[in-house]
User: What shape does this take?
Amino acid sequence: MSTPVLEARDVSMVFGGLKALKGVTLTLDEGKIVGLIGPNGAGKTTFFNCLTGLYQPTTGQVLLKGKELPGDPAHVTKAGVARTFQNIRLFPSMTVLENVLVGRHSRMKQGPLASLFHGPAYQRGERAARERSRELLAFVGLNNLDDELSRNLPYGDQRRLEIARALATDPAVLLLDEPTAGMNPQETEATQQLIFRIRETGVSVVVIEHDIKFIFGLCDSVSVLVQGELLVEGSPETVRADPRVVEAYLGKPPEEVQHDVEAAAASAEEEQA
Amino acid sequence: MSVLLQQLANGVVQGALIALIALGYTMVYGIIQLINFAHGEVFMVSSYGGLATFTLLPDDLKKSPAVALPLMFVGGIVIAVIVAVIMERFAYRPLRNAPRLAPLITALGVSVFLQEAVRVWYPNAKSNLPYPKVFPEGSLTLGTINVPWTGVLLVVLSVGLSVILQTYVNKSRMGRAMRATAQDPDTAKLMGVNPDRVIVLTFVFGAVLAGVAGIMFGGYLNNINIDMGFQNGIFAFTAAVLGGVGSIRGAVIGAFIIGLIKTLAGQYMPGGTQYDYVWIFVVLILVLVFRPQGLFGEPERVRA
Amino acid sequence: MSTSTVSTPAAAPPVEQRSALAPLGKPFAAVGGVLGIVAALLPWVTFGLKDGNWPDKSTLQFFDAPFAVTGFRWHVLLLGVLILVAAFAPVPSKGRVVRALGWGLAVVSFINGAYITVKGGGLGAITALDGDVAFGSIVGLVGGVLAILAGYGIGIELPGQWKVKLSTPVAYLVLLVSFAAVLYAVAAMLTTGGVGTSNPYAGAIFLSFLGFAGGVLAALSGVGFIRWLSVLSEEHRVFSVIVLAACALLLPFTEAGNEYWMTVAANIGIYAATAIGLNIVVGLAGLLDLGYVAFMGIGALVAANFSGAATAHFGITLPFPVAAVIAGVVAGIFGAIVGSPTLRVRGDYLAIVTLAFGEIFTRSAQNDIGGITNGSNAIPGIPPLSLFGAEFNKSFSIGAVKLPAGVLYYILIVLLVAATMAVFANLKFSRIGRAWIAIREDEDAARAMGIQTGKKKILAFLIGATLAGLAGAVFAHKNGTVSYESFKFMESVTLLAAVILGGMGSIPGAVLGAALLFVLPEKLREFEEYRLMIFGLALIVIMRFRPQGLIPDRHRRAELADEDVGGVPVDEVHEVPKEAKA
Assistant: This one.
């Protein structure tokens, strides 16, 4: 068996007296999409923050292609792990193109002097970065919006721009934190297709999502996180069949449980039909 | 040895003064996360307000300290409160949801404006003004240590008022509303707390304490000048940071530490009193760099 | 401009309630405009003032009395006509434009009326007293107020957005014309009302001109022209800097070409260069620096000590370019040191660290630390610069044309400002500049994009401080004396005010801000006393009403002003996730 591209071993995170993560282990094989689900407050985003170096795990380690990741977000990104945020965090008053160019930052070489004098080599690097950024914008479906301020984009486009910006860092692993939150069914469908296409380019993906139907239709494997612990892990079928998963979701507000259960049932019916 | 003891005593008196100002910084920061740069000027304005009150008194009242002094306190505090309330209402409140840089710059503007307004409009404010001799004279002598009664009064007022404030914030209904607003303004609002009232009240408390400090400053040092607000404001801010911004107890303890550093550095460090100011800033920078949460604050957590 | 498509966003919600005023919008604008024109033609004064007849003295040289309507009255006339045009022509963001012009009219009328009243000894001077009728200022004021109300009635919409793309030669032409107009306006601003002391009405005339210029600029900004022009000049930034520098170099040949204004302009230039450096730190990287002038002081001290002045600490005299480079490097090193707490300290606290550093500098310099500052005696007698035997503070002639004294300093400083602008512009539109802006916008997201935020922030401090150090070196030679008094906290505040007033992150803004803040005191000698008070008030008012500054940066604009915001509010974008809070 080959080395997994991303591996979290026994990651724990303690804030003061609060144990946000208790020994979570996750394995992502190359070219796969892994889903991470769980009720609110289960520690999903905290786990992401541990993976990307924003938090230092209290114990445990994170490995990228068998090598331990450095404990700093900038270096983690450079090593090849990119992310999006649960609440979109674009650079609101930069243009669409500039947002993606910021993503290219760690793949560009220009230092302060080159930036000061804009010599020929600088110009070449800048042109290449712009070209790559436009490609990525086209890839996620944002054409002809280069000079728009990112804050002026509709919600769905902002999510896609965030993905383009993350892809601009040339990641081996892309971490998506609720990429379809607030989207309508068509947009959700388009996002699913986009994630498949991202996988085709050789990037492995981890997705956090509340929309269980979306996760089951998308992922090769699903992990369920409850109260900071890994409850179940396996193929979508295994996870859906597991009674503990439904039970765990009963810790949530009634409407949401009902919604999730209905959604899961609906998707199950769909597949049987 | 006697020099050291005397300097320690001086440091405690300075600390008491700084503490009264520092409380205003720390409370406002605790509630709306604003470094109210202009708070030092509120202190300065109150000092001039007290002096103006005295000047306006009829001659026979000027000669009776028992009447003049309380009236000066009233005058100084009233002016300080008015200034603080106007400043909160018209300069800070409209910016409550603005990016953080905006209110900080506004605070800078308010500070410059107040200082200049006094310099230009208060008669003869360009030079040091002597403070009326209505304070208790003489001094307390303990062995070799000599502390003017004004200094003693300053320490008593400072400690007393901070204890009262601490009790009020911990025990009273309004104090609870203050703490709730500091923790989470939105939830506090849902619970029926009017954040505007709480914030104004915070400014008022800060102004009252600064007002007391302003009058006592004049009494202790015998004259006042328009730079007093900026300098002591910075000291007080340093004290608030040292103690952990938002913590009342921290601000008071921080203030005494700063007072001691100032007098001791002035006595024992190279450069003497010419550099005492510099040492305080060095301490400020070190604290901000190595323990930004202060001695009694909680560490800030990274958000994501 | 063939492909001109002028559009205002359709979904722009009216900010003000329009119900009461809505039907009155256009009628009010019409009446306001007509009143403006009438006011210009009415007499303004009933009798001669002590210092001479008011309207005679109120001429601007370039509005020299055609149709017997002179000076400010020309401005009033023009504003009246513009209000009428704006009200009835298809103008984008009509309400905003009419309101701006109305303010211009009201301010011009009020200032002139107020001065006449004060100088003429009472309200009699502007009303019908000795048989004459002189309601000019009142009519003008009423017209202005009506136009402002009309603006609200029509509705305040987002400023127009121009999507015009120009071919390069046309763009160059537009920029050339615009910058020439800017030069003209600057020369007018400097010379309007003459040199402070010689004309008793100088202050009034100058303020009145500012009111007019402000109204017209605000109207242009409302139409969307200013934004469009600033985007255009950023696209062609090399050309822009060259043209601006060329225009500035022509200033000695205009009416402002005398020793007095060369000196003032050179001083403005030094502060403008420093302000641009500060703009890197504050405007781009979003780090508030309250002790910035200390770096200028360090540069000045270094240059002074190597200048060969009698009280210089080092026995060596270095040629100016070498000393200037050392000044820049030393200031830069200090900048990096002061900036290094950014690795651990965030936001407001960093501002306090910089303030503390500034104070440490002032105190140390005051006490002659290490014997290099000469304490409160300052370092006097720094020799003026010279090049090929031409001393920079003497007058200078090219062929038959004799240029005023100080012109060489002026030229040197224009080149310094141009270089600083180029540095700023190149950095802003580079990998580094984008990283700074990203840090300013959202530091955690920037780190997640692979930006090493600590290093980049220190770099901002380093570069900003280096520029200030260079400006300080020039300052030392130009002024001949270096004293710690020139580098106190208030100077830092003034520079910050210049950056904020002009517009954070914007280069023309920093120059304009510095120009206004340093010309105003020259012009308003009678208000000298109130200078700092007005700064303080200005900071408060700007933050309240126009936090993006006079010439906002395209990036900054949306961020600081709610009025211009479309799409998702900043707070929502930046909302802290529940999980991280818990």
